[in-house]
Design a protein that fits this description.
The protein is mainly beta. Helices cover 10% and strands 38% of the residues. The protein is elongated.
Amino acid sequence: MSDNQNSPVNILSIIAIAVAIVALGVGAVLPQASDLLLSGLHDVEITDATSNQMLIYNGTAWVNQNQTEPFTVDGWEDINFPSLSLSKNPSLSPGQGVILSSGSIQGLLFAGTVAVNEVFSGGEILHGYKEGSDLYPHVHWVATSSDVGNVTWFLEYSVTSVGDVYSAPLLVNVTQAATEAAWVHSLAAFPAINGSDLTIGSQIVFRLYRNATAPTDTYEFDAGLLSFGIHYQLDSVGSSLKSSK
C-alpha cells in the first residue's frame, strides 16, 4: 500500500530529471529553485553541456560537484600591471631609466616637458570579482626630484562583459602633488569605473598617459611610474564554473 502512495512522487522526480537533462543537452537555461518539481533534483548529478563539468543541485543553485559549498569572502583584491609590462607607443613613449636614488633598478619615466607620454595594455576581471560592483583604477608613482608641482595622469578605457559590444572609451584623470621629496611612493586614484553591467571574465583595455602641457600638470620633472592597478571587491575564491559564478 505504501509503495502505491509513493509512486506519484517517484514518477514526478524521474520526469524532472529527464527534463533537466534534455534542457542541458540543447543549451537551455537550467531551471531555478522556484520552478515546479525542482525539489526532486536535490543531490542529482548532471553534466553541463557547455563546460563538460559535473554539476550538482545543492537545493539553491547548480554548482561544480567538487565545490558544492563555494568559499565566500568579503574583501578586496588588486589587478596590477607593472610599468615595464605596459606597451609603448614608439613615437610617444616614456623613457626608461633608473627610478631610485641609487642602484640600477629601472622603470618608466613620464617627462614633465613633453606633450604626451603614453602606454597601453588590457586585462581580465578575475573570477573572485563581486559581479556588478565598481572598479577602482589607480597608479603607483614616484617624483624624481624634491621640486614642487602637480602631476596629472590620464586614463582612457573601455570595459565590457563577454558577448557585449565595447562602448566608446571614457577619459578620466587624477592630479596629485609631488611629495617635495624624491622617490616617495605615491598612489593616485582615478574616479571609479561603473561596474553595474560587469561580470567575471569582463575585459578592460586602456591607455595611460601624462600630458605635461595640461594646465593642471605643473611638475616640470620626470614622474616615475611603478605600476597601474585596479582595486576590486571579492565575494568568492574563484568561481564554481569556468565562465560563471
